[in-house]
Design brief:
It catalyses: D-alanyl-D-alanine + UDP-N-acetyl-alpha-D-muramoyl-L-alanyl-gamma-D-glutamyl-meso-2,6-diaminopimelate + ATP = UDP-N-acetyl-alpha-D-muramoyl-L-alanyl-gamma-D-glutamyl-meso-2,6-diaminopimeloyl-D-alanyl-D-alanine + ADP + phosphate + H(+). It is a single chain. The chain is an alpha/beta fold. 31% of the residues lie in helices and 22% in strands. It folds into three domains: 5-84, Udp-n-acetylmuramoylalanyl-d-glutamate--2,6- Diaminopimelate Ligase, Chain: A, domain 1 (3-Layer(aba) Sandwich); 100-310, Mur-like, catalytic domain (UDP-N-acetylmuramoyl-L-alanine:D-glutamate ligase); 321-468, Mur ligase, C-terminal domain (Protein-Tyrosine Phosphatase, Chain A, Alpha-Beta Complex). It is built from 17 helices and 22 strands. It is globular, with a radius of gyration of 24 Å. The termini are far apart.
Amino acid sequence: MSALWTSGEAAVATGGRNTAEWSARGVSIDTRTLKPGDLFVALKAARDGHDFVAQALEKGAAAALVSRVPEGVAPDAPLLIVPDVQGGLEALGRHARARSPARVVAVTGSVGKTSTKEMLRQVLGGQGRAHAAEASYNNHWGVPLTLARMPADTDFAVVEIGMNHPGEIAPLSRMARPHVAIVTTVAPAHLAAFGSLDGIAHEKASIYEGLEPDGTAILNGDLATTPILEAAADRAGARRISFGEGAGCHHRVTAIRICDRATVAHGRAWRTQVLYKVAVPGRHFAVNAMSVIAAAGALGLDRALALADLGRWHPPAGRGQREVIPLDAVDTHLTLELIDDAYNANPASVAASLEVLAAAEVTHGIGRVARGRRIAYLGDMGELGSGEAAAHAALAELPALGAVDVVHCVGPLMAHLHDALPPARRGRWCATGAEMAEGMHRDLDAGDVVLVKGSNYMGLARLVDAIRKMRQGAEVPEA
């Protein structure tokens, strides 16, 4: 494998000073996932990365990007010394972007940016060398890290850009310099920091400020805040493409069929009829897939290949991934199905996930309960501001809940939903995921389909782990 960074090029990019010559095949910020040959970047977060430089070098790091020589590091250790490590990482990212001829797509949105990024990776990777972050690296260190890891011979790159506070997206977009920028949707997430949906829309729309000349702005055309997105695209001098389900959308989804294992959609890519699928149930996946089709068109890709590759996309873990859990090592019919969507939650994404659960096929007559059930474990949705209690209670009015048998609630905010649920659907309420996990073996049975959904800080991955531990020979409890 050729070098991603040499000591000389990295020094030119950052203005730093090398203590030795080195070459790196990758870039890492975490010794737990560092691979031999990586450049270790000693960022300061909850812990100071300088405290882990010696460990990184012992694990085979090619060098370390530091602002000082750490204690316990040999005098001849390969170091790239810069005034500020975060600034050094950003400089590497800008240099990597400048040296590459890659066509770049940037993605943001209140819901769906990571899954859309992964759809783009799938589609672009079918028509060239594609680069994207392995995880949701979308913040002030995630975006430059994604760029710094981009090989010089990349054909296409996908950069996910997120935000928690005003003023975060535009600088990251200017760093990425996308040729195409997508806003998947604007929804009430991070309302505590922005105060209104319009405020969120203005921040999301600022992704267009980083567009290259003659760039393309792709935006959701079905929103109350669509005019804000359109105005920002026009200010950037971008070609504007709207997508969605409304009659006025340039790329329009005209019909969606949610199946147990896939979603099939018909639509119009401007004047061309398209039929496509994604290998996961969910209306939101089908709609966001239309933005990917629009991006493929803007980049001049082969549409038939793009649609075929789109049909092979699966969501990553924690984002709607489905898994069959065998409950008995002998009787292979005794299974339940897990929908792992425990990474993030806001009102729009919870509604979308419940719609997926409502469409799922349960299995009757195989468990101790006579019929299979659709069961949801929902955790608190964070950063919704002063209306957070009402937003949680309002989930009880979602049409998809009519097809859900039991809803268990986790967290103080989800207590409002618990109180608002019809008694027949009201499951347990627990303050924490740990408390909820203790009783899950009594909640579930063979034939059930189970959704786990909540904001990441609620730690509902613990519930996912508890369900997985029921696999293979665990007793299925009496109902």
